[in-house]
Amino acid sequence: MKHCRVLTIAGTDSGGGAGIQADLKTFTVMRAYGMSVIAAVTAQNTMGVQGVYPLAPEAVGEQLESVFSDIGADAVKTGMLFSAPIITEVAAKLRKFNVSNLVVDPVMIAKGGSRLLEEEATAALKDELLPLTTVITPNIPEAEVLTGVKITTVDDMKTAAKQLVAMGVQAAVVKGGHLTADPIDVLFDGKQVSEFVGRRYQTKNTHGTGCTFSAALAVGLAHGLDLSAAVQQAKDFVSLAISKAVPIGHGHGPTNHLAWLDRTPLADN
Ligand code: PXL
After folding, report:
1. Which of 2, 82, 133, 217 is spaced 20 to 30 Å from 124 by Cα?
2. Does 175 qualify as catalytic in the annotation?
3. Which of 147, 210, 152, 212 is nearest to 181 (CA)?
4. Is 11 among the catalytic positions?
5. Residue-range domain boundaries for the chain
6. Host H or E run for residue 41
């Protein structure tokens, strides 16, 4: 398999379960070469977010210049970007370096309620980042904020996914983890709607699932999978990581990225 270069542009999680740390673990166990551009530092553990320290937009831009002027990337994902000025800087560099295969995880609020995206930055996300996006991966609350669609059913998820494509992304996966029934994810690729049915595991160790899913999706695209196969693989990756989570810390523990290494090999992936 080709050795792919995958970049995350996101926030750090000192507790290691979400953000940049989850992304780099995912990239590594999926056999991609991981790179990271840090947009913000969080002081965080499984109990919650204790502090948020965004970087200066120029610092984010300079990291992107360093990566793209030398190494390049076969796929890029964004996570916590925090502010409108950081989003503007990121979008400018993505345009400058003609990035394709861009997975946007529109991270807004951490489980405990801490804002990981300032409220006034939503407009910048919509106006500047969505037009560059290959696939966006909102959970239900994020899809509601971005589209204004109130989501309580799978049909509502389909409406929101179509709305996101109308807003400029090439494709949208609306994740059903917040549904009360089985977690069904909905993909709209501009032509076709498909459903990815998962199993719900009774566990509180779900910290970093969104980051992990979008990171795995970016690796799939970097490896040249088509979108539907990359979504299925990312869902398999995060489901296994949730089902094999080990108790770490006193709150919402992290998923287990290492589970992928011990799975029964399905194919050469
Ligand atoms: O899962 C969303 C997320 C993204 N990025 C960082 C986070 C979190 C959730 O806590 O801490 C840095």
Report:
1. 217
2. yes
3. 152
4. no
5. 5-254
6. strand 33-45
Q: What tokens does 75 get?
A: 């796929």
The DSSP symbol for 47 reads: T
> What's the rounded mean pLDDT across residues 167-176?
97
207 secondary structure, DSSP code? B
pLDDT in tens, 204-236: 888 999 999 999 999 999 999 999 999 999 999
Does the Cβ of 79 fall within 6 Å of ligand 1?
Answer: yes
Tell me, yes or no, if 206 is annotated catalytic.
yes
Cβ–ligand 1 distance for 218 under 6 Å, the answer no
256 lines ligand 1 (CB under 6 A): no
Phi-psi region of 17 (alpha: psi -120 to 50; beta: other; left: phi over 0): alpha
164 vs 146: CA distance, rounded Å: 8
CATH class of domain segment(s) 5-254: alpha beta
Q: Rounded to whole angstroms, what are the CA distances from 51 to 10, 37, 42?
A: 15, 19, 5
Is any atom of ligand 1 closer than 6 Å to the C-beta of 106?
no
Instruction: Give the DSSP per-residue string, 83-98.
Output: SHHHHHHHHHHHHHTT
Asked if residues 205 and 253 have their Cβ atoms less than 8 Å apart, the reply is yes
The answer to whether residue 208 is catalytic is yes
Helical (H) or strand (E) element with 262: none
Question: Is any atom of ligand 1 closer than 6 Å to the C-beta of 57?
Answer: no
Is the pLDDT confidence value at 268 over 70? no
Which residue has the least CA distance to atom 5 on ligand 1? 19
Reported as a single tens digit per residue, the pLDDT across 65-120 is 999 999 999 999 999 999 999 999 999 999 999 999 999 999 999 988 899 999 99
Closest CA to 160 of 172, 168, 170: 172
Ligand 1 atom with the shortest distance to the CA of 12: 12
